[in-house]
Amino acid sequence: MDAPDTSGQSAAANGDHAAAAPPPLSKSARKKQMKQQMREKRKAERKSAEKERKRQELERKRREWDEKLAGASEEERARLVESRREARKERMERRSEERGMKVARLRRAAEVGQKLVIDLEFGHLMSPNEIHSLVQQVMYCYAVNGRCASPAHLWLTGCRGEIETQLQRLPGYDKWIIEKERKSYIEALDDQKENMVYLTADAEVELQELDPAKIYIIGGLVDRNRWKGITLEKAKEQGIQSAKLPIGGYLKMSSSKVLTVNQVVEILVKFLETRDWKTAFFQVIPQRKMCEDESETRTEEAEMDSEQAEDGNEVEGASGDDSEVEGELEEGERKRLRVEKPISE
User: Which of 39, 295, 338, 343 falls 20 to 30 Å from 205 in CA-CA distance?
Assistant: First the structure.
């Protein structure tokens, strides 16, 4: 008697991640969830406090500027405004030059750079808040890669659904110099499957070097502890190689060795610059945890950059100077001078 055919059941089991319901949260997972909620609350409070600090700083500088102009003659006032205008013009020209150099680096990377793929096919396993967090991490990945002297060639694959919708809402996303594919990496790079390496903390092989011919894949999944082993399982099912970053040889992690997407990308691009894993790890992973606090800080920075871009402020090349404040003040003063200027002139 022939054995029953279970191949269909096996295939369904292997490919049924989309239909799988998340396992019930354990006591430890619930505690982590509560901690995450507290972190989100503290983050919102910090952002609110930072906005208020910036508002007060703007008001202070505006008062100082008004007082300075009030005590100056008409000629001195015009000279002060012109001097500030020239300084701002120089800053904007410098930033424009920096942007041009960044574009040139990224276009060069698209031709010869190390291929790094962010796999966005896990959207169905994440909550809306987790998808939002992932999108912010992707934004930070693009920003940090663009600042590198030798950037990687970044790919977004499986870019569809809610993840794609949220990415398209990011200011300037349509101008990103990055590969955006709705197809999976297997389909988009179908002739290079033998060169693919899925980076996962569950792999047995440690990555020692970055091979320019290889394509390194990073799983775009938030809260991987709920889905432990899913990226390794995916790599095995697809018949592609897997490897993990050699963290254990350089750092003693106080908890999980699972890193955020932006941390992995930043470690890889730092390694491309330095060819030194220790330097890359210590520059990216904070010493306390070593994961959570720095990830929050970096994601907050990316969110603040996004908010600034939405407000029309300069993000690229921001150096922490008074350029934005000065820009507002000098524009106001130019209007006032035009109003006060005698008609006879």
Answer: 295
Nearest to 141 by CA among 108, 113, 178, 169: 178
Three-state secondary structure call for residue 141: helix
Residue 9 clears pLDDT 80, i.e. is over it: no
Q: Are 155 and 114 in contact (CB under 8 A)?
A: no
- CA 277 – CA 302 distance, rounded (Å): 25
Q: What is the CATH number of domain 88-311?
A: 3.40.1280.30
Q: How far apart are CA 286 and CA 41, in angstroms?
A: 21
d(CA 187, CA 252): 38
Domain range annotation of the chain: 88-311
In terms of pLDDT, which residue wins out, 10 or 228?
Answer: 228
Amino acid residing at 9: Q
Catalytic residue ranges: 223
> What is the total residue count of the chain?
345
How many Å apart are CA 105 and CA 153, to the nearest integer? 10
pLDDT tens for each residue of 261-305: 999 999 999 999 999 999 999 999 876 545 444 444 455 555 544
Q: What is the pLDDT of residues 124-145, one digit of tens each?
A: 999 999 999 999 999 999 999 9
